[in-house]
Design a protein that fits this description.
By secondary structure, the chain is of the alpha+beta class. Helix content is 23%, strand content 45%. The chain has one domain: Jelly Rolls (Sandwich), CATH 2.60.120.
């Protein structure tokens, strides 16, 4: 009887054990970088055992981006229960906006800095169930000065030059 109770306790403990997987993602650089083409990377996971899971999708954010989008679609037997984005080195979390249902994730961020990030996806799964997703990062575009900015800058330089010249003439 004691052996049966010990075996039952161990099997109940094993049911609740969560699986954790680290999935590295490399964002590919498009041939037309700078023309509005996003950098993309894909990920997928096959859950080996039934129960809850938490996957850490780790990627290096490119230089400041205007939008990062994270999408995932569940195969049969997967139910998504959470998604978060944080700095991999233990820093704070990054706010996400979008939607998550039990079978799909479509989240995005605002501008993020170049750093190592951890996208955590959690849920429950049947043994052998799978899901796949993508990360898309649209690189930010450097601001180009408008003609008004150039005119104002030149006016300021001219005024500074006139001030220095007038001051020099008064001393002589």
């Amino acid at each position: 009887m004691k052996t049966f109770l010990a075996a039952a306790a161990l099997s109940i403990g094993a049911i609740g054990a969560a699986q954790a997987t680290i999935i590295p993602v490399v964002l590919s650089i498009p041939s037309g970088l700078g023309d509005g083409s996003p950098m993309t990377g894909s990920f997928s996971d096959i859950i080996s055992g039934a129960g809850s899971f938490t996957d850490d999708i780790v990627f290096n954010g490119p230089p400041p981006t205007s939008t990062d989008t994270f999408t995932a679609t569940a195969g049969s037997g997967i139910t998504f229960t959470g998604v978060t984005l944080s700095y991999f080195s233990g820093g704070g979390s990054v706010p996400l906006s979008g939607s998550m249902t039990s079978t799909s994730i479509n989240e995005s961020t605002g501008t993020i800095i170049s750093a190592l990030y951890d996208l955590k996806i959690s849920g429950t799964a049947a043994a052998g169930a799978s899901y796949s997703g993508t990360i898309s990062a649209l690189p930010g575009v450097a601001a180009v000065p408008e003609p008004e900015s150039w005119a104002l800058m030149l006016l300021g330089l001219g005024a500074t030059g006139a001030f220095v010249r007038g001051r020099k003439q008064r001393r002589d």
